[in-house]
Amino acid sequence: METVKLKARIGPNAKLEWLEPLPSLPQGEVEVILIYERRKKPEGRQLSPSEWPLLNGGEYLGGTLRREEIYDDEV
């Protein structure tokens, strides 16, 4: 196997656009690996409650929730 590193841009509808001319390549099947930087979400944007992570805490069985009871130790 041989490796060729080429630069490209992802355009509308996820279309790959080469930024430089392609070298002479043999016909056949190839593997393509895309390496890109994930864009951060703009700062200041508030998440709506529907976007908050969900926790499944099980069922509360009553009683107190003192630290000693939760962790079974004495402080």
Structural commentary:
This protein is low in regular secondary structure. Helix content is about 5%, strand content about 10%. It is built from one helix and two strands; from the N terminus they run ββα. The protein has a two-stranded antiparallel ribbon. A hairpin with a 5-residue loop joins strand 1 and strand 2 (about 15-20). It is elongated and about 75 Å long. The termini are far apart.
Mean pLDDT: 83
Please report the total strand number as a whole number: 2
From the alpha-carbon coordinates, what is the Rg to the nearest angstrom?
27 Å
Largest sheet: 2 strands, antiparallel
Terminal CA distance reads: 63 Å
Task: List the defining traits of the structure above.
little secondary structure; 8% strand; 75 residues
List strands and helices in order, with pairings.
Layout: E1 8-10, E2 16-18, H1 67-71
Antiparallel strand pairs: 1-2
Précis, in short:
With 75 residues, the chain is largely without helices or strands. The protein is 7% helix and 8% strand.
